[in-house]
Amino acid sequence: MRKVAIIGVGMTKFGEHWESGFRDLVIEAGARALEDANLHGDEIHAGYVGTMASGRLVGQEHIGALIADYMGLNPIPITRVEGACASGSLALRQGFIAVASGIHDIVVVGGVEKMTDISGDEISDVLGGAGDQEWELFLGATFPGLYALMAKRHMMEYGTTEEMLASVAVKNHKNGAKNKYAQYQNEITINTVLKSKVVADPLKVFDCAPVTDGAAAVVLAPLDIAKKYTQKPIEILASAQASDTIALHSRESLSKLKATEIAARKAYEMARLTPKDIDVAEVHDCFTIAEIMAIEDLGFFRKGEGGKASLEGKTGLEYAGGKGNGGIPINTSGGLKACGHPVGATGIKQAVEIAWQLRGEAEGRQVKDANIGLSHNVGGSGATAVVHIYKKGY
Amino acid sequence: MRKVAIIGVGMTKFGEHWESGFRDLVIEAGARALEDANLHGDEIHAGYVGTMASGRLVGQEHIGALIADYMGLNPIPITRVEGACASGSLALRQGFIAVASGIHDIVVVGGVEKMTDISGDEISDVLGGAGDQEWELFLGATFPGLYALMAKRHMMEYGTTEEMLASVAVKNHKNGAKNKYAQYQNEITINTVLKSKVVADPLKVFDCAPVTDGAAAVVLAPLDIAKKYTQKPIEILASAQASDTIALHSRESLSKLKATEIAARKAYEMARLTPKDIDVAEVHDCFTIAEIMAIEDLGFFRKGEGGKASLEGKTGLEYAGGKGNGGIPINTSGGLKACGHPVGATGIKQAVEIAWQLRGEAEGRQVKDANIGLSHNVGGSGATAVVHIYKKGY
After folding, report:
1. d(Cα A369, Cα A371) in Å, to the nearest integer?
2. Do residues A307 and A154 make contact, with C-beta atoms less than 8 angstroms apart?
3. Angle at Cα B126 formed by Cα B125 and Cα B129, nearest 5°?
4. Are residues B147 and B267 in contact, defined by beta-carbon separation less than 8 angstroms?
């Protein structure tokens, strides 16, 4: 397999894009990534795009062809990949494999979701398609409900508190306030979260990622020619994916995501690294409890200690460059909570943020001496998990 | 890139499966492919699945994880790929790339669609998602309508007649009658087609592929270890994909599919073969005109002569083994027309049929001395085309 690098990145602002359609978002993100890689469209050999539910959200399937068309990239092959909220990272993984295989050299990978064109009631139903339709959603479960079960179990087993959960949202809003692409750029307090409306006990509105429109894109190339396009290639050291049961009731534990553990183990093996080597990570915080489980399952904190670490600020930006001090900056972009969660775009946005961090271009939220980064993207309630590890390629 | 072989194949009967759900179909096809490859589930390293519109047809996205779960394959990664009616072949292509890259050895690739759980009106709308929602479907176009425009243009430019179109359906029903997996196993006459109800002039009911439930699966392995699993590995010599504008009105010609031409050219180059080397082909006949365009665009007949060749029987089984006599057996499975068209499954079913032909296991429809086969799968009205070329690997 050839080594693979990210040679360009770009994204739209995440938020409610009433003035832009699905295709406008893709074009904006894709054009920025191509510009960042100093590439013309005719130098692209193939593409992948992650989107979860375009069929139900905007009545459009066949997204690969749509994008090839509207980005003026015909006749190159562009393929849509779907794995619920992990669709973006799955697309990145296919792009990685394609470049590694040698079948394509320059590959653009995008993620997109246009979520605000349908009503809030409908969106719940659409997102429900990420879980087990027959055994969970049809019987009345919602996504906040599923994660609330996990939160309750985590609280029971490890003494995690609602304050600890809230501290994740507070930290992510603090980071989001430093990210001009974030949906929410305002800081909040623990009280903002605790006093917000309950969605599914113990999760309140401010424990939940919002509904968001947005797109993000990266351009991949074999590492050995990456320097032709950029002074700052970012090498993808590892790409790993794992599955778990789609319904919660079949899992052996509700207080961890086994797919995250397995994908992380495979990724660390592939990269020949350990959790201690990671300087900065974007993890999947669709709900605050999800970030707490993620930082444990990824090996940054011992199982059960993620909530306490969050409350103590060990995942904040102040832990930048502090290897060995027991902390690691998590979700510098603001995470799904504050940066927003346009489902299919999230995995690619994570890669974009890590690339910016490793290139030293993360502005007010820059992690000092960031050399190695990790992204972690989850599909549904944990039936798919994808982990990528990146390193400065210069 | 490593050489890749098909080491096992399986499919469900295509038809109206009132007694089976989406997951039952996948399991049946997958289990048959695994059995055919003499494999246990724990020997599988990864999977891909093609399905077009499960979100709208059965309310379920996140199909990769669902299948990993219900086939008992957790925690291996399974990824859904979507490209409208070409979803199956796109999944096959990703599986091919994954094995070729070296990241995975044994990969199962499935295709599935459960279409009969919603009404006929709804199905038209769902299938419309394969075209340009904003510029075609929203304005009232349907898929038969789009292909009717292509048929009219082909008739005008080349003198193709309604009888020629009908002859495609007659031949495909004749083949389907010899395939126990086909939805329609009855022969028809030219008159059956000509006298059937008009759907979109000049296309009648019998010019159109039906609505179908079904699934198909293949197992891939590196060619150099394929013999461990099967005495009859089928090598995939080429996998190529191309895109065209999603809407018809932007195309330079309505009487051909440019994406087919480009994908075919790339596939022949990759395989170092020409159309004359192909012994048997499965092509995308969602409508009879589509088969006529396909056999021209793939280079089996000169442009404009596909209709005449069909009427003269040059695509029938009797042309088996007759290299150099100007004919080639097309759609021995019965094609989309008679075998049925469960959208995401079709591309994989084509690979299954070609594997059976090259293994000499196609029973009453066996093509004599078939050594090299081709499959051709189209997404929507031609915005995606995928061509695979296969050869006996033993």
Report:
1. 6
2. yes
3. 95
4. no
Residue pair B76/B67 in contact (Cβ under 8 Å)? The answer is no
Report CB contact under 8 Å: A63, B56. no
Q: How many Cβ pairs within 8 Å bridge chains A and B?
A: 209
Q: Looking at the annotation, which residues of B are catalytic?
A: 85, 341
Joined together, the tokens standing for residue B2 give 């490593």
Percent of chain B predicted with pLDDT > 90: 96
The Cα-based distances of A290 to A91, A235, A380, B101 in angstroms read 22, 27, 11, 33
Distance (Å, rounded) from C-alpha B315 to C-alpha B326? 9
Is A59 within 8 Å of B83 when comparing Cβ atoms?
Answer: no
Q: Tokens 């003269």 identify what position?
A: B312
Chain B residues near residue A68 by CB distance under 8 angstroms: 243, 383
Closest CB to B62 among A69, A242, A380? A380
Most A CBs within 10 A among B82, B270, B386, hence the mutation to make, goes to B82
Q: What is the chain B residue with the closest CA to A86? A: B62
Contact at 8 Å (CB) between B148 and B202? yes
User: Given an 8 Å threshold on Cβ–Cβ distance, is B66 in contact with A383?
Assistant: yes
Residue B322: what pLDDT? 55
CA closest to B138 among chain A residues: A59
C-alpha A343: how far from chain center: 9
Query: How many whole angstroms separate alpha carbon A147 and alpha carbon B197?
Result: 52
Do residues B126 and B65 touch, judged by C-beta distance below 8 A?
no
Q: Band of the pLDDT at B319, cuts 50, 70, 90? A: confident
**B79 close to A81: Cβ distance less than 8 angstroms:** yes
Question: How confident is the model at residue B326, as a pLDDT?
Answer: 83
Residue B321 reports pLDDT greater than 60: no
Q: What is the mean pLDDT of chain B?
A: 96
Question: Is-contact A316 A57, C-beta < 8 A?
Answer: no
Among B78, B125, B384, beta carbon nearest to A65? B384
Beta bridge partners of B385: B242, B378
- Model-level pTM greater than 0.90? yes
B219's tokens? 């197992």
Tell the residue number behind the tokens 């719940």, with chain if given. Answer: A124
Residue B219 binned pLDDT confidence (cut-offs 50, 70, 90): very high
For the record, the structure tokens of A363 come out as 């502005």
For residue B148, list its beta bridge partners. Answer: none
pLDDT digits (tens, 9 = 90+) for B114-141: 999 998 889 989 999 999 999 999 899 9
Determine whether A192 is exposed, middle or buried from the number of CB atoms within 10 Å of its CB (0-12, 13-18, 19+): middle
- Name chain B contacts of A61, Cβ cutoff 8 Å: 52-53, 82, 84, 129-130
Give one DSSP letter per residue of B293-317, joined into a string.
HHHHHTTSS-TT-HHHHHHTTTTSG
DSSP, collapsed to helix, strand or coil, labels residue B290 as helix
Q: Which two tokens stand for residue A45?
A: 């050999």
Packed helices A288-297 and A162-176: angle between N→C axes, nearest 10 degrees:
90
Q: Which residues lie closer than 8 Å to B78 by C-beta, 6 or more apart?
A: A243, B46, B47, B48, B49, B64, B65, B67, B68
